[in-house]
Every structure is written in structure tokens, then in C-alpha cells.
Amino acid sequence: MIDRKIPVLSVAAITLAVLLLTIGSGVAALAQVVASATGSGHFRVSGDLRTFTFNANTDNSGVTTGQTQGNNRNAGVKWHGRLTCLNVVGNVATMSGVVTDITPGLGDPFLVGNFIQFQVIDMGEGNNAPPDLISLTLFFPTGSADPGCTVPQITATIPILDGNVTVH
Predict the structure, then answer these.
(1) d(CA 108, CA 115)
(2) Number of domains the chain contains
(3) pTM of the full predicted structure?
């Protein structure tokens, strides 16, 4: 007597896997990136070197996801944040979010949970393009309202050294 349960289960498992892959790819097709900004590099403030990196994407449902990180060597502070807002106007991107880690914690407004906002300008690519620009990152005190990113509180004016920003 031949046991036919194994082939039937295998066909059912394959059918379920194909169905899940089809549904998963359909969901992925619905969430399309409509705005993005990425970058990393260095800049100087009063001669002191600072390092940054960030990425942010907004999908067609208006949801922004991303991360940002900075290192202020003069102050000895490293921080990380989750980006929740991205506003792209031409080659200018303004981003905001929440501090998720800061070392050392210097006290208010440099605390986990506080809001941040910064801006970058993509000045183009190639050797003849001027340097991209970045702003300082603003840290908002405890109890402040989320600044969002549609109304910039700061403007990108600092040239980026050894880095690049891309805004779409």
C-alpha cells in the first residue's frame, strides 16, 4: 500500500507558499517611495569636525521612515534618531523625528524622546558642482510640540566636506 499523504501535503505547502509570495508582492507594490533623502559626510562648525549620516523615505501613503546619526566631536556627543517626517521641495529636504539614543545625555534638550529637525540641500553631482549643504540639528526641549518638517526652523547653509547628499 502506498501512502499518498506526503505528496498531498507537499502540494498544499507549495500552493500556500506561492499564495503568500503573491500577496506579499502585491502589498510591496502598493507602498511606493515618493520622496527620499540620503547622505553622509563631515562638516565643520567653528573649526570643529562633525560627522553625520541619514536616510529617509516617504511612501505614497504619507508614511516616513528613516534614521539619522551625528557625532559632535567638540562636545563629545553622539546621537541617533528615528526620522518620522520628510519634506522635499526641489533639491531641499527638511527632516524631523525623535532622539532614540544620545551619549552622553547632556540634559534637556539633549534627551532621548526629544524632537529633532535638520535640513539639507542637494547641490548636484560631479566635480563642478558646489558642495551640498546641511544645517545644524535642532534639539527641541522636553514638552515641545513636534516641529514636523513642513515649516523649517533652520536652514541648510553649512558646506558638506567629504560627503554627499541626494534628494529626490
Answers:
(1) 11
(2) 2
(3) 0.81
